Each structure stands twice: as structure tokens, then as C-alpha cells.
Amino acid sequence: MALKKRRLGKTGLQVTEMGFGGIPIQRVSEEEAIKVVKRCYDLGINYYDTARGYTTSEERMGKALEGVRDKVYIATKSHAKTAKELRENLVTSLKNLRTDYLDLYQLHNITDDSWNTINAPGGAYEEILKIKEEGIARHIGVTSHSPTFLTRIVGEGSPFETIMVGYNYIALEPSKELLSTCKKMDVGTIIMKPFGGGAFTNARTALKFVLADKNADCTIPGMQSVAEVEENVAVCGGSLTLSKDELDSIEIDRAALGDEFCAACDYCQPCPVGIPISFVLRTEMSTLRRMGWTEGTIKQTKETAPKVAACLDCGACETRCPYQLPIRKLLPEKMDALLKRLEERSIP
Predict the structure, then answer these.
(1) Considering 194, 226, 243, which residue would you say is the last residue of a domain?
(2) Lowest mean pLDDT among 3-12, 25-34, 286-295
(3) How many angstroms separate the first and last alpha carbons of the chain?
(4) How confident is the model at residue 322 (pLDDT cuts 50, 70, 90)?
């Protein structure tokens, strides 16, 4: 069964409609991670996504794909804000991935605030343009949790050839304007978090929902076992029409998660006392499920707790939240639960 391919916007790359999201292979053994990636290749997946920030993911992907490099598309990302840091990240990524070029290099998790730094003289933006000119990155893109930011960047005609955004049957904001704008501007669209970071009842239904959107070029679910790979490939090969039971399950999730599910759009920011709101609301049920306890998550959890305790209860965040989340109620609840898990080093 051949996976269907879609053109990834102006890159011209013919990518399988489902690619491989490289976050979960950090959590399993190296042997298992390599088996998972190789199984993806055996079943026809040709697009592989990772990032400099995903600990061992690049190295494991590099080992798995070294022998078939010319038959796959490899994309990685960098959180770098400066030109120097981006270039350093690039060198490390190429070494880890055992390649001398990238099919797609992306500036990672950009916000309006970080864009000001990245776009300044000596910033990562001017450097990624150089990296493309040098041919080390054949194409360049940007990732963000903010559909509004991405819509603006695409509308301004930036040289980014792709965008990556979270989209699923609860986080619907990208479908309102962003994805159609990208299609109009011929910017490739890569969809992350189709399963809501593991919060949804039925992964099969969630994957079908996103795949059915023809404005979504490539969806990259995270997969950490061969069984998950085989199940998701089977979904791609079947009908994408949602049954009544599947539509009902979506409504059940929307009812259960609608007043608690944070899409990480960060419209709620800035917080006057510096609370990273989406971090607090998402880490336990999303980030930990995908990545486990990393040094960065442990550090940020410890630094965030006193900020939550200092909340002014001003409510400004709630007035800006497009999903009408009861943020002031959720912050202490989620923070307490997260601190308990930190103490136990447990994962949901």
C-alpha cells in the first residue's frame, strides 16, 4: 500500500501526507528508536522531522536513515535567536543526522516577541537565509504555536517556504485563515500535534480529521513504537470519512477538554508577573507524555512555581484567551499537579 503524497508548497517536495514526528523516540531505547524509524521507511514514509532541542532524536534518526539518505526528506529545527547560535546548531545537527545538507531547516517555536530578536541585525533570520544560499539547507521554514503570527508572516510574503503549526479537532484556529492563506501563497503546511499532545480519546479519529483537510500538506504524528507506525499508516490507507461514532467521540473530547485544553497559542501573554501560562497548562498532560522529564522541563517547573504563587488574579489573560479558558482557576491546579509529578518523577 503506497502512501499518498502531497506537494509541500513552493518547496516542490513530494512528501507523504503523513510524515514522522521525532519527539517520542527520545523516550525509548536507541535500539527501539532505530527500529521505529526504519519501519517508517519500510512502509513508505519519506518525511522525517526532528529538532536540535529534542535531545537524542537527531542522533537516532541519523543512524536509522544513514543508508537511505538520498531517498528521504529530513527536516530539523533550531531555537537559536542569534546568527552565531544558529550556525552552531546547524553544525551539530548535520553531525547528528549524518548528512551534509538538510531538506528543510526551520526557525523553531517563534513568537511575536522572539521574532523581534531573530529579525534584528545579527539575528538568526539573516543567518538562515545565508544557510539556504549556501545550499546547506535546500529549503527554509518557520514553526510557531501562534496561527496569528504565522498568518502575518505568510501574508507579508516572507521567504519561508513552509510553516509548522499545531492543528487538531479542538485547536481549530489554523483552519480559519492560516491554512487557506498558505495554500493561496503556495507555502507548505506541516501539522504538528494532531493528537493534542496525547490528550485525545482516539488517535485514529484525530489523525483522520487532520488528513482529511486538503490544506494540510504533511501531518507529523509522534510515534514511539512499531505498532503505532503500522496503525497510523493503516489509517492513511483507508477512508478518511469520519463515522457517526467518530464524530461523537470528537464531541465528547470537545466537551471534556473544551474548558481546559490549552492550544499554546499564547494570546494570553504577556503576564504581568511573568507566568508562562501555556507551559503550566500543557506540561503535565502534553509535554510530559511526549518528552518525559527533561532537564529543561525540570528547571522551568521549579522557576515557574513561585510565579504562579505570585499571580495577581488580574484576569487579563482570560480576556485575551480565544478559547475562554478559566486560566486563573487552572493555574494553581495544574501547577500543584505538576509539582507532585516532579517530586515523584512520574508521567501521566
Answers:
(1) 243
(2) 286-295
(3) 35
(4) low
Distance CA 209, CA 338 (A): 30
Cell of 50: 526532528
pLDDT surpasses 80 at 290? no
- Distance, CA of 324 to CA of 345 (rounded, Å): 31
Asked if 239 and 281 sit in the same domain, the reply is no
Are residues 282 and 203 part of one domain?
no
Question: By three-state DSSP, how is residue 337 classified?
Answer: helix
- Establish if 16 belongs to a structural domain: yes
User: pTM value?
Assistant: 0.84
Which residue is associated with the grid cell 527520545?
26
Note whether residue 114 is domain-resident.
yes
> 523581534: which residue's cell?
116
Question: Which domain, by its residues, includes 146?
Answer: 5-243
AA letter at 250 = I
How much of the chain is helix, strand and coil, in % rounded to 5? 50, 10, 35
> How many CB atoms lie under 10 A from the CB of residue 223?
26
Residue 317: its pLDDT value, please? Answer: 93
Indicate whether 235 and 110 sit together in one domain: yes
Domain end point (choices 183, 217, 243): 243
H helices of the chain, where? Answer: 30-42, 57-65, 83-97, 112-118, 124-133, 147-155, 173-176, 178-185, 203-211, 226-237, 244-257, 277-282, 288-291, 295-309, 316-320, 327-344
Mean pLDDT of the chain: 93
- 105-139 pLDDT, tens digit per residue, is 999 989 888 999 999 999 999 999 999 999 999 99
Mean pLDDT value of segment 76-81? 97
User: Do 25 and 124 fall into the same domain?
Assistant: yes
Inside any domain, residue 149: yes
- Beta carbons of 77 and 113 less than 8 angstroms apart: no
Quote the distance between the C-alpha of residue 203 and its chain's center: 16
Number of domains in the chain: 2
Answer whether residue 119 is part of any domain.
yes
